[in-house]
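Treating backbone geometry as a discrete language has practical consequences that deserve illustration. In the encoding step, the backbone of a single protein was reduced to a row of integers, each denoting a local shape. The amino acid sequence and the backbone structure tokens for this protein are reproduced below.
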Amino acid sequence: MREKFLVLDRNVRDDLETIDRLYEELGSPELEESSPQEELIVVAYRLHGLFTAFENIFRNIANAFENQVSQESWHREILQRMRLDLAPLRPAVIDAETYEKLDELRRFRHVFRTMYGLDLDSLRLQVVLRRALELKPLYRDQIERFLEFLRGLK
């Protein structure tokens, strides 16, 4: 395996461990309209971290294979690229269903990072949390398939 792909493999595996830990910390909280803001903030922070770990995997893959990402919309662009089959360069990393769930997390992360002084909406946070929990059984097999592809590169 070429050095850059070996480094990519190890980085992806480290991020997968982080994702596992974040899912464990997130648990399955029961959010209600009356949930205190402090509880909502903790859940929102963990969802933010979860998407950031996924994005780190995708950024590392893009850097190893595509190298060109625009500065203005790179968060959306990287996620879109990961569902593209770029054979013979690389296969798709995620499918359309996983993309949709991750895109919901991406949009939420953007709002969370820019909402200074505003309260979190518990109903909106419930939607994002549900998407994150629906993502949990999907992502691992898809990323492992990509890592198998990497191991096949010489």
Remarks:
- The chain has five helices and no strands.
- The mean pLDDT is 90.
